[in-house]
Specification:
It contains 1 helix and 8 strands. It has 166 residues and is mostly beta strands. The protein has one domain (25-165). A hairpin with a 6-residue loop joins strand 1 (40-44) and strand 2 (51-52). It is globular.
Length: 166
């Protein structure tokens, strides 16, 4: 048996192929189909009334069924954000760009999305944003049907209005 290396291994340079097939399941499939029609669905917890986007089968908080589908708005508020200055392999985004958590109107938890059509330094917590959708005929029922979010120009939401929706 060979001796272990004297120096610790710091990295391994190798090509890794990891093919997979994602099966959405009934709940997620319904959500994805709705995106094709420019609709965003959430699921309401039967115990707390909280709405989760994307829909979940059970509430992660109460474990109660979240079996009522509800449509939420395609606009909301920036709850947190990050200005990205490092390129991501496979994404052709001009640096810097903004990734934000957005609490959609009607939802109780944030989703992650790009903020575009404004300077990164203009993005702020409480900023009202709206979805920019792929054109009709190009949407396929995937997360990429929403290209990004952009500012609406509406007044910012006060911190108290979104602090529990991070």
């Amino acid at each position: 048996m060979a001796e272990p290396p004297r120096e610790p291994i710091k990295y391994v340079d190798a090509l890794v192929r990891l093919p997979y097939h994602y099966v959405a399941g009934d709940c997620r499939a319904r959500y994805l189909r709705a995106l094709k029609d420019k609709k965003i669905l959430g699921a309401r917890c039967s115990e707390t009334g909280k709405v989760f986007v994307p829909p979940l089968v059970n509430s992660p908080e109460s474990l109660a069924p979240a079996d009522e589908f509800v449509e939420v708005a395609d606009r909301g508020v920036v709850t947190t954000f990050c200005i990205v200055n490092i390129p991501v392999i496979g994404r052709a985004l001009e640096l810097p760009y903004v990734v934000a958590s957005i609490a959609l109107d009607g939802a109780d938890i944030s989703i992650h999305a790009l903020i575009q059509e404004c300077k990164p330094e203009e993005v702020r917590m409480g900023m009202r944003v709206e979805a920019v959708w792929k054109p009709d005929g190009e949407r396929e029922g995937s997360h990429e049907d929403i290209l990004h979010f952009r500012p609406t120009g509406e007044p910012d939401m006060p911190r108290e209005g979104f602090i529990n929706r991070l």
